[in-house]
Amino acid sequence: MSIEVNNESVVEVDEAALQRLALYALDQLHVHPDAELSIVLVDEAAMEQLHVQWMDEPGPTDVLSFPMDELRPGTDDELTPAGLLGDVVLCPQVAQSQADTAGHSMLDELLLLTAHGILHLLGFDHAEPDEEREMFGLQREILLGFAAEERRRR
């Protein structure tokens, strides 16, 4: 699995943890091992520009996903085809603000946003209540499973 993390922000981030979460999530979702994913961390000004350009909404946001080959999750019996999954763009400053409100670390917030962004790349959405239940249920499973893996790693 090719997972590139590029921190273009001024905020120090545990890039290796984001990479481990992405690898874990893609494995759980049966994505082909030759798939490619890019995670980019940007400052608020860059995120605001992307948010306006692509979503026509003002202000910076926490995460944006830009799918490339429109891959979908595989199954226990069949992986996705290999390809370019796309880009997940994160804004650490917005994540820090949300983490403060939620009462957890910025890293925990970035891990949540990374899982969320990956699910969007794989076609999940939360516009409708049933879609939201499915997507947020998977997001929760990924985060809990990853946390358990991290505890075993130590």
Automatic annotation (TrEMBL):
Its cofactor is Zn(2+). GO terms for biological process: rRNA processing. SUPFAM superfamilies: Metalloproteases ('zincins'), catalytic domain. InterPro entries: MetalPrtase_cat_dom_sf_prd, YbeY, YbeY_CS. One of its GO terms (cellular component) is cytoplasm. Belongs to the endoribonuclease YbeY family. This is Endoribonuclease YbeY. It comes from Homoserinimonas aerilata. The gene is ybeY.
